[in-house]
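User: what does the whole thing look like in 3D?
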Amino acid sequence: MVIIRIKGTVMIETLQKFSPAIVSHKMDLKLEAKTVNAFFGKTQALQNVSLSIEKNHVVAIIGPSGCGKSTFLRCLNRMHEVAGGTMNGTILLDGKDIHENDPVNLRRRVGMVFQKANPFPTMSIFDNVAAGLRLNGMAHNGHIAEIVERSLQQAALWNEVKDSLSKNGMSISGGQQQRLCIARALAVNPEVLLMDEPASALDPIPTAKIEELIYELKKDYTIIIVTHNMQQAARVSDETAFFYLGEIIEFDNTKKIFTAPSIKQTEDYVTGRFG
Amino acid sequence: MKKINYEKYHWRKIKSTTMTALSIMSVVIAVIPLFLIFFYTLAQGISALNLDFFIHMPKPVGETGGGMANALMGTAILIGLGCLFGLPVSIFAGIYLAEHGNNTFGQIVRFFTDVLSGIPSIVVGVVAYILVVVPMKQYSALAGGVALGILMIPTATRTTEEMIRLVPHSLREAALAIGLPQWKTTLRIILPTALKGITTGVLLAIARAAGETAPLLFTALGNRFWSTDLGHPMASLTVFIYDYAKAPFEDWNRQAWGAAFVLIVLIFIVNMTFRFVTRGRYGDHQN
Amino acid sequence: MFFAIIVFGLVFLMAYEMIRGSELSLQKFGWKFLSGTVWDPVADVYGALPYIYGTLTSSFLAMVLAFPLSIGIAIFLSELAPPWIERPVSFMVELLAAIPSIVYGLWGIFVLVPWLRTSVEPFLIKHLGSLPFFKGAPYGFGMLAAGIILAIMILPIISSISRDVLRAIPNSQREAALAIGATRWESTKIILAGGKSGLLGAALLGLGRAVGETMAVTMVIGNRAEISASLLDPGHSMASVIANEFAEATTALYSSSLIEIALILFAVTIILNVIARLIVWSITKKFKTT
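Assistant: Here's the predicted 3D structure for the full assembly of 852 residues, as structure tokens:
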């Protein structure tokens, strides 16, 4: 077995060598992170993280709490800096550095769903979904109701709320709220969807719904999901990255990570020996 | 596929920057008067301050010079009386709220304490007039003390409560676990631990009371002579400032600034101390 | 327990004593006390309207000046500033609240009023003199001066409570807004909408403070019991008439009338405070539990 200690740009080549899944569609990279270091003040949260994500794939990021997986996710749409953090290294979206452009613009293209559902309490269900459209000046394109309906359908929520669109966004159940937030993120038509433990606060049935949803959404979006639930990662993702102490330990085809990981630490984690 | 509306985006960007600038500007506008008042008082006040100001009595109308020794003394006595009337109630009420205040009654008391702090001080003065001056048939230091005491209650009660709440729960449990009764735990363990915080909180209430003028106008009234008789009118710094500010004599105006300077320095010191002490406390609490 | 009851009972004691103290005037004038415009101690006739008008006008003016500024400060403190700058700025704004009323008054008399008289008011008369608010001579002392001083004095309370209200809104709301591509200001707007009622509460608390403020107002408002639309004209307020005349009230009816004014002030500030505290309470509670 080859030990891949993934560091720096070397990693991409290494990966391509060892992961046939990635090599086969090599050209269609959506997101690339190159030697990303992230900090909170003086504490380093990420060390030399490099990762390439293909278009229309689902990538799961797993690892014990505090391993930097959420931080990495938040670097991808520059939410990390909102929380007062700093980072260096390069992140490319469609080959362009995300730091060259404005974060507001970036976040429209890279949507995010948070750990806890956070609908706007002052808005109705309809307005919650429409919020991003209105902000981004897409409301003038007309069809706002159409887009709201489509987004809610994509989020598998339409049938449940179509008769109560004017109700407050907080009035529905937790699982529905989370799907409302997904609809809100989808409404602005992003290219990438970041999901930060989207089902961690939910019961099994709504969790299953969200997982089904991810499978559906894959057709149109590139999805990166952070989860501490390994079965979930195994169920929904094409590739899986294992983070530990701020570093990427292993990144590979999901099946391989869960059946024959190359690195001892990954194996220990996925078999439940620690974490 | 929908395209982002770049023209609008540009406009949104400008709007966001403008609002940020406006927000910063409001901070600047708000801080300007603070500096103006502070430096003007400093500049005017310093020149009025000398030894005479502190140890001499006011000169008769028309003569220059003299000081405010009686007013300094008066303010000290009035504050002392205020503490006497206000503090026992506040501290015990604060202890009660911190120890047993997690019920409806506690909430109501807390609510009324907040409401009490919103009552204008002049109204408190009127009440002290009705309660003390009318039955005594005379303006008196006592009445002023009652007014200041009532005014101290909200601040002192709430800070006492908050400071006691900052004492870690584990400490209380430790004391109870070695068999100390509740009241002894409070008196011997909790209070001494919170003492520093309570003291500065009380100082804050005192500083506020020292700056009060309205409730003294028709209770302690004011006095141009030396008096320590609690049953008679008594001078105070703030009432002196008021009288001297309105007076047409430049020398008196100057002395008013001197008194204002003394007040401001006193209040700033107390506020700084309070902030310093509580910041350390909050830090401990979080860890 | 006993002492807690004292605190609680104090409010009622105050109300009772003042109602008793103003009995004479309540009986004699009834509701007409509120609408009467004549305040004549010689004839022993008292009507409080000029004072009520003065208090309302000066407080309203103060709110118009202070509220937008306070919201701007609150936004800066809760949404924009990093902690190292937020703390000293908060402290400075709070210091503004610690300066005694009398010092504001002193500053008003010797700095603000002369400045208004020599530069601001002539300017207003020249350029906006056609409006009824800016007619008359530039005295310096008057409603405008009172409004400005009051605005400075209520700024700290409105801005610090607004800041607390905005802070009570969880961070996830800001992140949600930013994540769908909102700019800073757009996210702030969503936060402001969430804290709307709390900001109203903060405004009411500030209004309560302005209504009851005595010394600084007395020193700059001009103390003339007239109702005039012009902000440049001297006026009077409820609190300042008590401060000026209470110690000299010669007849029982005179002091009873002044006590009634105090009672009105008391009632108004209590109502404002109760409403405001309930609003602020419920909003901070709401966000704490969710």
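In plain terms: Chain C is about 75% helix and 0% strand. The CA atoms of residues 177 and 189 of chain C lie 10 Å apart.
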